[in-house]
Amino acid sequence: xxxxxxxxxxxxxxxxxxxxxxxxxxxxxxxxxxxxxxxxxxxxxxxxxxxxxxxxxxxxxxxxxxxxxxxxxxxxxxxxxxxxxxxxxxxxxxxxxxxxxxxxxxxxxxxxxxxxxxxxxxxxxxxxxxxxxxxxxxxxxxxxxxxxxxxxxxxxxxxxxxxxxxxxxxxxxxxxxxxxxxxxxx
Length: 186
Ligand SMILES: Nc1nc2c(ncn2[C@@H]2O[C@H](COP(=O)(O)OP(=O)(O)OP(=O)(O)O)[C@@H](O)[C@H]2O)c(=O)[nH]1
Known about the structure:
Strand 5, helix 6 and strand 6 form a beta-alpha-beta unit. This protein starts with a strand and ends in a 16-residue tail after the last helix. By secondary structure, the chain is of the alpha/beta class. Helices cover 36% and strands 19% of the residues. The chain has a 6-stranded mixed beta sheet, with helices on both faces. It is globular and about 50 Å long. It contains 7 helices and 6 strands. The site of guanosine-5'-triphosphate has 22 residues, from helix 2, helix 3 and helix 4. Belongs to the GTP cyclohydrolase II family.
């Protein structure tokens, strides 16, 4: 377990490693954005908790891997604003529209903080567990090789179906188990 303070902020991030990750071979990895409601409180509104559990299980099965737990709650808008966004979603907005109505970008996350974390761990190449092409692009731009993107599709339920459709349709997430491009009603 490693803790990191993000330069110029009070944000503290965590890296969890399993096995020897500094031997140069691509490491099975997950950049997980904090979601208190999904990760800790088992909310069914999103897929975050299921993805966290799935990623840790995959790392355990592989016998080697890394999880960066990034303090990027609510795609970077924070917990209280995410809960405000939920209220707007309950009134009909989708997850992207809600962010915009609150005055934020659709996704406020910045992945630059991952570079010193991965460098500290001796990791230069990842088999990245994600459905989000922005994460792949961000790491590549930082000089971290993404040797493979490993899909992480889990936790689909009636409560998060519309949310996931919006991620596929508006945020470009590669969710082959949904009807991509379609933004459905509840
Ligand atoms: N603003 C906002 N953030 C949300 C909402 N639901 C979940 N989140 C946050 O979204 C972040 C996870 O991002 P996602 O877009 O679900 O997935 P991702 O991490 O980009 O992609 P994957 O690697 O495929 O999981 C976490 O920080 C959650 O707190 C929501 O309705 N609104």
